[in-house]
Amino acid sequence: MTVTKVGCHTIVFKEDERKDLDLMLRTVAEAGYPGVESGMLCDGDGNAAKAKLHAHGLVQGSLSTNWRALDTFDDVLRYADTVGANLIQMSGQNRPEEGLAWYDAFAPRFNDAARRAHDAGKKLCYHNHSWEFLRYDEATGHIVPGDPNEDAASTGQAHSGVVAMDRLLDRTDPAHAYLCVDIHWVHHGGLDPVKFVTDHASRIGYVHIKDMAYVGPQPRRPGVLRFDDSVFAELGRGEVDLVGTWNALKPLNLPWAAYEQDRSSLPTAEAIGISRAFLRDHLGV
Q1: CA 230 – CA 50 distance, rounded (Å)
Q2: Do 53 and 36 meet the contact criterion of CB atoms below 8 Å apart?
Q3: Distant-in-sequence, close-in-space partners of 50: CB < 8 Å, separation ≥ 6
Q4: pLDDT digit string, tens, across residues 175-225
Q5: pLDDT in tens, 27-47
Q6: Counting beta carbons within 10 angstroms of the beta carbon of residue 183, is it exposed (0 to 12), middle (13 to 18) or buried (19 or more)?
Q7: Counting beta carbons within 10 angstroms of the beta carbon of residue 246, is it exposed (0 to 12), middle (13 to 18) or buried (19 or more)?
Q8: Are 28 and 50 in contact (CB under 8 A)?
Q9: Nearest 5°: phi and psi at 137?
Q10: Averaged over 43-67, what is the pLDDT?
Q11: Domain extent at residue 27
């Protein structure tokens, strides 16, 4: 059985902290993480990044990018190969005003990059937010009314039309286009993360283990939440079923997962320490 290594996504470090790479990596190592997920460190110099990581006893198990990286994907693959990261996550763009057309234009480009990653021994994984769970009219491609971020008074979208995530999955090849499932954003999208990872197990490259606390109005709207309805939480301090989701993922024998927390009100070292303890004590990783 594969033993999952869990990395700390460096997004949790505040801007000033990220400027001091040695301090950031030392803090991650002292919290007990074996590695990190990050963008291209050392200005994209893979050899320098690998040496810096090695000096702190860390690895970079996954590389964090977004849709813009499609324009420089050779550089991404070169860096990933140099540091030894076999997983690359790519997030999309929140453009509901462009409708399904955005996903239809993005899918073949993502698919091509995923094939190139596969040929290079890597997995390119689409990283979801909650906007991929918004619904669109299949005939027109326009968003179904009720987007909570556009209409604060909305009670949510009607359960009709095409879910953007389904559109993307349908138009990419499961042989080489994977998912980096962000559990927080699945929950924020109004779905059950346990069911989502079970239903999409064959497409999962790895996951972001991430918690969420609801701070929005009552009664709570169904479906996708507004962005300001929630805050990022240290693992175990929110409402996401992390244990149940992890148990559903165990049969996949994932070699790597990443703890991600976009922001914390606590000192960063304290926040990542709390989450590391939860990972160890409740998930066994």
Answers
A1: 36
A2: yes
A3: 60, 82, 83, 84
A4: 999 999 999 999 999 999 999 999 999 999 999 999 999 999 998 988 999
A5: 999 999 999 999 999 999 999
A6: buried
A7: buried
A8: no
A9: -70, 125
A10: 98
A11: 5-283
- The answer to whether 129 touches 183, Cβ cutoff 8 Å, is no
Which residue intervals of the chain are DSSP H helices? 15-18, 21-31, 46-55, 73-83, 100-119, 164-170, 183-188, 193-199, 242-249, 268-278
What tens digit of pLDDT does each residue of 263-282 get? 999 999 999 999 999 999 99
Q: How many CB atoms lie within 10 A of CB 97?
A: 10
Residue 1 has pLDDT above 80, yes or no: no
| Length of the chain (residues) | 285
Predicted TM-score (pTM) of the model is: 0.97
Number of domains composing the chain = 1
CATH code for the domain of 141 = 3.20.20.150
When pLDDT is cut at 50, 70 and 90, the band that residue 155 belongs to is confident
Residues 6+ apart with CB under 8 A from 144: 134, 135, 136, 137, 157, 158, 160, 161
Q: Report helix, strand or coil for 214.
A: strand
Q: How many CB atoms lie within 10 A of CB 178?
A: 25
Q: Which pLDDT value is given to residue 96?
A: 95
